Amino acid sequence: MTLLNARKLVGGYNSMMILSDCSIEVAAGEVVVMVGPNGAGKTTVMKAILGMINLTGGSVIFKGEDVTSLPPQSRVVRGMAMVPQNHNVFTGLSIEENLEMGAYLRKDDYSASLEQVFGLFPVLREKRTQVAGELSGGQRQQLAVGRALMTQPDLLMLDEPTAGVSPIVMNEIFDQVLRIRDQGIGILIVEQNARQALSIADVGYVLVNGKNRHTAKGSELLNNPDVRQSFLG
Amino acid sequence: MAYLTDVANAFLWLFNFLILPATTYGSTLALGALGVTLVFGILRFANFAHGDMMAFGTMISLIGVEFLNRLGIFTYPIPAGLLFLPVAIILTAILAIALDRTVYRYYRSIKSPPVVMLMASIGVMFLLNGLIRLIKGPELQIFNARRIFPANKIDTVELIERFGNRAVQTKTDFVTQEKVVQVTEPEFVFFTVHDFKQATGLSEGFGLDLIQVLTVALAVTLFIALYWFLMRTRLGKGMRAFSDNEDLALLSGIDPRRIVTWTWLITGALAAIAGTIYGLDKGYKPFTYFQMVLPIFAATIVGGIGKPQGAIVGGYLVAFSEIMITANYKKVANYLLPEKWEVEGNLQLLGTEYKFSVSFLLLVIVLLLRPSGIFRGKVI
Asked: Shortest CA distance to A127 belongs to which of A115, A143, A111, A113?
């Protein structure tokens, strides 16, 4: 089932048009990876999906509903979650409080979700009373993903989740992404570490100048000579 | 033994002229700084109108006292101004929210830089400045309830027994030429300096009145309540999260309008309380509150702007420094030093008229040595 259908997105910041014609589809329980050179508009696509930039064209359909004109708040309520690349945790709050903030809108008992996040990232349970600003880069990423999971999303968007972490932690994070996928959540990832990311992707998109260049299964993209030469080095 | 008495006297002098006044003054500054730091943390601008918001709240309490005066009701031993504090809190909170809706919200919606918000708050400051002077005048007015009774309808002897000789005056009414009794309700005093000296036989002492105790008790209660609110409640945690990382707060579904409204509500309430307790002690004069913005900002920045615990520590630090540097230590020195070293002149670092420069000095030192303040607040 298609969870997200972003069609022919056109837009950018003020006068700068970044997306010229970009379409992304994500299904439930699927990992979709976006790769592309710097400035291709990968992060902008995510912001557009969440409604953080103004679109001049195109539409965003989420769970069968047109959300193109809704503010980010309403999209979060409907089940979108995003982990920004930077400043993705509340540094002055404890780890537990960070996760609680993820559940801010929830009226139900969220202790089950909390247990789930702690199950996925055991290190967070150990340090639950510690201030988030004291965490290492990898732990911080885990907390950021944990906070997003606390909103009980159907679509989880990760903006470069492995930027600045060691290769070991990177593998760990990709591993956890697969475990999150297995819970039936659709995942959209923007990645610099294209090779590793595409190897876990169900679908991969290559974005150039705000347009789709290639769309295929992750493994196919990895073997595509054009993609290999231009983006995988 | 004689030396021990001298040490006791020196300490009592310090307690009465330094520690006690600095603690009460520090409580006012800390409460004021808490309001400034909350607004800075959440709305990200320095609110220069805070002193005048305090004056507004104090003015409401004062109007309440005058209302009671008209009715001729005694509230002793409770200070009449305190009875109207809840009204002052509500009205000041409403004022704060109204100012946000009419002024600050616009600048937020067009994403103005903090300096524009600051300038807007200076405009609001002048507006309030004028408003409170129009309503209640610019001169010093005291909170002690002053009631006038026709002389033939009141038992003067009973009043003197109850409030003391100085509180009761018999006068002739200027207009009607009738004899009237004017009663100035005194502050409730636990004991005076005189009582203390008589009881202990020492030559120095200190007095304690209800307002001093109330000031400190109220401040400490509010510190604890605010701490509990910020650390334990969902809304308080949301406010901290919003202050920490606005974008991520939005991604978590925290509603900025609700956070902003509550911030002004709490700030208005804190301003009314801080202003009124200061007024109960020192009287209400608009210019004093206008001036108080300076030490309040010093306290906020010294403690670390955006950090509530910093505002509290900063408030007491500024108050103690101001009073310590402008105090005249002649008596203390003469108690402690041998007789042949007797100090005849003043032993004072700075005249009291320079007390505001102390906050600035402290500010400069802290900004040079630790620009983010004691508790590592935001760097401006």
From this structure: A143
What pLDDT score was predicted for residue A55? 87
Domain A1-79+155-161+185-233 has CATH 3.30.2130.10: no
Contact A154, A79 (CB under 8 A): yes
Across-strand partners of A32?
A188, A203
This prediction has a pTM of 0.90
Both tokens assigned to B103: 């002024």
At residue B183 the predicted structure's pLDDT band, cuts being 50, 70 and 90, is: confident
| Minimum-distance CB partner of B253 among A84, A92, A151 | A151
Tell me the backbone φ, ψ of residue A228, rounded to 5 degrees. -55, -45
Query: Which ipTM was obtained for this model?
Result: 0.88
Judge whether A96 is closer than 8 Å to chain B, CB to CB: no
Rounded distance between C-alpha atoms, residue B289 and residue B308, angstroms: 21
- CA dist A227 and B12 (Å) reads 83
Quick one: which H or E segment has residue B14? helix B2-14
Q: CA-CA distance, B79 to B83, in Å (whole number)?
A: 7
Angle at alpha carbon of residue A166, lines to A227 and A202, rounded to 5° = 40
- Which residues in B lie closer than 8 A to residue A147 (C-beta atoms)? 248, 252
Tell me, rounded to whole angstroms, the distance of Cα B41 from its chain centroid: 21
* Contact with chain B for residue A73, Cβ under 8 A: yes
Residue ranges of domains in chain A: 1-79+155-161+185-233
- Smallest Cα–Cα separation from A135: which of A176, A158, A169, A174? A169
Which three-class secondary structure state does DSSP give residue B211?
helix
Q: Report the distance separating Cα A130 and Cα A136, nearest Å.
A: 12
Give the model confidence (pLDDT) of B60-93 as tens digits. 999 999 888 888 788 888 888 899 999 999 999 9
Distance from CA of A165 to the nearest CA of B (A): 21
Other CB atoms within 10 Å distance of the CB of residue B205: 22
- Residue A182 pLDDT greater than 80, yes or no: yes
Tell whether B253 is within 8 A of chain A (Cβ). Answer: yes
Residue from A12, A11, A61, A3 nearest A32 by CA: A3
**HSE, side-chain direction, 13 A CA sphere, residue A138:** 14
Q: Which of A165, A169, A207 is nearest to A188 (CA)?
A: A207
Nearest CA in chain B to A78: B253
Cα gap A221→A141, rounded to integer Å: 27
Which amino acid, one-letter code, is at B20?
L
Residue of B242, B250, B251 best to disrupt the A interface, most CBs of A under 10 A: B251
Residue with tokens 């409170």: B132
Quick check: B213 contacting A, CB < 8 Å? Answer: no
| CA of residue B260 relative to chain centroid, distance | 24
